[in-house]
Amino acid sequence: MFVIDNKPEVKEKKLSEFQIRYRELDRYYSEKELGSVVKEGATIFRLFAPSPVQVRLCVFEKPEDSFCREYFMERDDDGVWEILIDEDLTGKFYGYKVYHEGEDISNPNKPICTDPYSKAVATFTTYQNPRRSIVVKQKDFDWEGTEYVHRDWRDLIIYECHVRDMTIDKTSGAKSPGTYKGMVERDIKGGLNYIKSLGVNAVELLPVHEYGYCELPYGTIKNGVINNINPYERNHWGYMTAAYFAPAAYYSENSPSFRWNRWIGKSGRQIEDFKEMVKAFHKENIAVILDVVYNHFSEYELGNLKQIDKEYYFRLDENGNFESRSWCGNDLKTERPMVRRLIIESLLYWMTEYHIDGFRFDIATLIDWETIERFTNEARKINPDVILIAEPWGGGAYNPGGFSDRGWAAWNDQIRNGIKGENPFNGKGWIFGKWYGNNSPKRIKSYVNGTLRRDEYGIYNKKEHSVNYIESHDNYTLGDFIRIASGEVDAHKIIKNVDEFVRLSPRQLKLNKLAALFLLTSQGMIMIHEGQEFARSKVIPYNIKAPDPRKGTMDNDSYNKDNKTNYINYAQAETNKELLDYYKGLIEIRNKYEAFRRANYNDIAFFDHVKSEFGLAYLLKYGEEHFTVLFNAEQEVNLEFPLPPGNWEILANDKQAGVKKLGEASGNIIVPPVSGCILRMIRDRS
């Protein structure tokens, strides 16, 4: 029998001249030290950019100067432009004029490009973010014996926070509010002192790389892009990185409000301020993790990698247009050899120069696996315990398992959506007595165990690869999610008295406690977002000048608001002190008893409640310690649970939590609706 293949012949599409040139750029690579380097009284400048036809170095005395000393640079065969100036130019400002084929080399208005390897940057605060790199000579810093914080990932309780938000409100008591210095001031209510009081052992800082502070003027169109969504014209969170080696200057400015059309960062003190902050956290044995953005670059500004060499540094379509699977206007081509080198060297620099303990990677699926694997190997040579966390989605991909296979942790949105829900309108989760999506009692049990692959619902190889969280900087806070989902607050309600609005109703308090109890008794890495512990509300001020149609309502996307929407108000922590104390008590229990962090899969035995699928119980063993954990996610019905034989002390119930005994129980115990409890077996001391 003969099989005839009648499939039409597929002809390979002929590549355009641009596509050929674009592919050929892969061959360029150099090992030369890049950036500005001061050695033996001279300063060497090197810029990798294989496509331009001419590059000029511009050296300024002051960033605001219009006049500069201009030098023609020479290109080597590997695409590196370089020049040696026989002067120590430490403290001088510089940038590059980069000319491509067909451009007018006599153009006096050519944008000055920032050195991608800048160690410090001065920025002019407009939407195009003009910058000047600063020549920095590395000098000794007194770390006072502090080093990395070495901690088993299973023990991590991370506090995700924003440097400015933590101390800019007057209730923090900071003398340098909103700054690196303010974050670690002594004898104040906010910042490090507050974080330490919670009992957490790591902070994850929203982006602190120098970034694009401003966006397009509201209502204007530039290069086919219109700003019709951001009336604040700001990027407050920092997810528009502009310089991968430089700390954000804004957090050294000690300014109560953002100032437009000003140069910031001129002094370069942001370097030392940042180091002092890290040192202060390390003295308290609190690890410092940076949220980093290597999937895209700052979108609107002139004078960055897009002007240096668009074709080398970015993923482009067949017509030479930016790909934007990140939804941020441009995607870095991380698989290019010299982009990979830029990423890896910048990360290692933060580890060695700033003693950073780990990183959380924004939209990490847009970073190629080879870059991730190479960085992992190099980072662990410096610190074997380096913390590596992925946001394991973006650009249409979802792959927490791929990161787990490479020894990384990843945000577990499954536990977030399963326990809280996906949205507070028609996507409510387990704490509301609902099953969101494909969630079920079996999935809830999988979350308790660390969402491990050894059961059919898991995605991680190790439980410490699961970053368990219910709130992050994105979307509604947990407190606001519950306010809306409880049906007690209209999402469109105009709120004028925020301090009173934040006060939890009895039902809202119970829902927040139940979520906290589940989170902090689950196996895996734990993350809490700033203010989650007192049900912080992100209310847009009703009387601000910005033309925001959502003034006065709860915000679910506060990336652009450098105002009280995002600032931490410590008076509100007092308002909801019962919830705050409950979080502290649960953290205290988790820190003291290793069972909640290190129990083996087979050390957790589940028991279903015969009358409710929302009743969950399990016996937890670790060494000589035995615990029983009970949950009742029914909304109105008490559930009675039989306890394993023995006498049990109550560590947490619907009112309190902590290592001090709240009472004893044996036989059966009644758990009220929307609550749970933790019981520890009392050992026979006879």
UniProtKB/TrEMBL annotation:
Listed SUPFAM superfamilies: (Trans)glycosidases, E set domains
Residues in Glycosyl hydrolase family 13 catalytic domain copies: 160-590
InterPro entries (alphabetical): GH, GH13_cat_dom, Glyco_hydro_13_N, Glyco_hydro_b, Ig-like_fold, Ig_E-set
Gene3D superfamilies assigned to the protein according to its UniProt record, in alphabetical order: Glycosidases, Golgi alpha-mannosidase II, Immunoglobulins
GO biological process: carbohydrate metabolic process
A Pfam family this chain is assigned to: CBM_48
CDD domains assigned: E_set_Pullulanase (cd02860)
Gene Ontology MF: a single term: hydrolase activity, hydrolyzing O-glycosyl compounds
Top-level taxon of origin: Bacteria
Protein family according to the UniProt entry: Belongs to the glycosyl hydrolase 13 family.
Entry protein name: Pullulanase
